[in-house]
Amino acid sequence: MKKFIQFCLAAVVLVAFAACENKKEVDPRDAFVGSYTYDAKGSVDFNFGITNYSIPLNNQGTFTISKSGDGNKVVIEGWNDPINATVSGNQLILESNNYETKYGEITLQLSFSYGTATLSDNQLTWETEVSGTGQYSSFAANGNGTVSMIATKK
User: Fold this and answer.
1) Per-residue confidence of the chain (154 residues) as pLDDT tens digits?
2) How far apart, in Å, do the first and last CA atoms of the chain sit?
């Protein structure tokens, strides 16, 4: 009887040990990591007093999302400056960033305030509020607009 009890205890310990070993931590970032193709549509509007400019921010291309350090941080890279983000469930909380560019002879300083990106199946979508300043010759103007992003994971 004693051997039977020892056998049962050993079996319980082995099963418990095997169950613990099979439980691997799932990194929530894994759902987002990879390459994406994207289609961005939007514009930012400036009024230079005499002339209004609606500057298109339409673009298509690719970007990648990769893990960034420990925890739930990721980085989106592929156009302009990288975007840092934090994973929360099926969403990315995107950090704002700034970008300087030229549109013809207009120098633009743009600020991007990203909305929360949502991953559904293999599609990542978000809205971005854009604000900034434009400089054309001696004329300066403030501008605002939006960009809608749809990205598909490859």
Assistant:
1) 555 444 434 444 444 555 555 567 889 999 999 999 999 999 999 988 778 889 999 999 999 999 998 889 999 999 778 999 999 999 999 999 998 989 888 899 999 999 899 999 999 999 999 999 999 888 899 999 999 999 999 9
2) 60
The span from the CA of 54 to the CA of 48, in Å, is 11
Whose CA is closest to 139, among 79, 49, 52?
A: 49
Predicted structure pTM score: 0.78
Residue 40's beta-bridge partner residues? 59, 149
Handedness of CA 123, 63, 149, 117 (dihedral sign): positive
Please list, in sequence order, all residues whose beta carbon lies within 8 angstroms of the beta carbon of residue 50, skipping any fewer than 6 positions away. 139
Residue with tokens 């205890």: 9
122 three-state secondary structure: coil
User: What token pair was written down for 98?
Assistant: 């700034």
Nearest Cα residue to 109 out of 85, 139, 143: 143
In angstroms, the CA 126 to CA 77 distance is 16
